[in-house]
Amino acid sequence: MTEAEKKPIKASEIDPTFKYEIAKMHGGEKLMRCFQCGTCTSDCPVARFSDTYRPRQIIRMAQFGLRERVLSSDTLWLCAACFTCTDRCPQDVEVASVIRVLRNLAVEKGYVQQVFKEQGASILESGYAYKIPDLRIKKRESLGLPPLPIGNPESIRKTLSQLGFLKCIENKGEKSG
Amino acid sequence: MRKVAENKYLIFLGCAVPYRVSGYEISARKMLQKLGVELVEMPEFNCCGLPMDPVSHEMMLILAARNLALAEQKGLNILTLCPGCAGTLKKVNKMLKEDVALREEINRHLKEAGLEFKGTVEAKHFMQVLIEDIGLEKVKNAVVKPLTMLKVAEHNGCHILRPKEFIGFDDPEDPKTLKTLIEATGATCLDYMDETECCGAPSVGVNDKIALQLARDKLNHIKSVEAQALITICPFCHIMYDTNELRIEKMFNETYSIPVLHYPQLLGLAMGIQPEELAFNDLRVDSSQIIKRVAEGVK
Questions:
Q1: Among chain A residues, CA nearest to B23
Q2: Within this chain, do residues A120 and A158 fall inside the same structural domain, yes or no?
Q3: What pTM did the predictor assign?
């Protein structure tokens, strides 16, 4: 638990609608089933090496409606998305997907890490999440590899044009978490 | 519905393979060609969508569906080298096939670029293609030089197996496919502690120390059973163990010197393909002892 998360909970912090909002999103549907057994945390490979990342606690904070606390928390970004918790949850909660829903909501609030903006921008520009060095592209022929398929940025942009996240990628000056 | 061609696939390279792991691509293409698999290049490329899932689930869905729609136009199933790509494409394929409302929503986005998802193709990781489409017998028959002199360990990685509900391949708690395919080469595949644990790669960039601790933990277990090499089937897992092995050794004051091979390199050797053709030079950790053992047939 981080210091900020140890602070006493004030009634004014609690938003009882938060859990319903999560439950409406893909992967968040079964949030309310969690009975806090702790299987997710005890089987989590990241929790083994982290003093702060506890999936069970994140789920509880979400159930309680601690919207701002959970969305602004850095620990939310430590999940490695290995899906062990999801596969082992006795209540069938898609724990990793609930965490992904929370991350998506955090991004809408402006808490987005730079690495995702960069990867998003790279996909829009070239189709690839990383900028493939020119040298590597040129070297393919001498390695006996066919030319690298190229992206179609115009078409990619068209399919993504209705998304709010597009604005977030393009607004590089926005608040980052 | 158009019939999908057999033994012919659209190869989906993903982003990590062309960015950093060309040895995987080189060896996989050699191995698949020798097994009679025909590979067609993607007409155009965009990321499978997985890296964008944490920030926008909808963007992930659209990017994945776009690739599936392109493959449908070609009338070919997708073969990937990266389990992350395979997992994402499979998951989205299943979601859009089963959820009509979601499919309609995603198709509204695709329509902006004149594309449509219909749900007529499949996406598979090459390992699934080997075991389900080509078949174990054919893989075994292709072995001309059994690697009985090698004792190795395997690392499946997460996204080839999890989440089980969407992937529906092998048993995430006790996976057997990679072991079976390793044993098909004649090599012994050793069991070790916490075999199914994550390599840590997704935490790189967020918290490098935790990521490297995860990889170190696994390398410790692999070392303790005296594996001569570690076999992977994922570009990210390979980067964690091979590219980062030296970094882990320095950071935690450990010594491993465990070569990390892509499975196609191992099978390729057993099929009699020369190490130079299988991009062994591309590996960061010295693999000369493995090549020597195979060449001399020494146990």
A1: A143
A2: yes
A3: 0.95
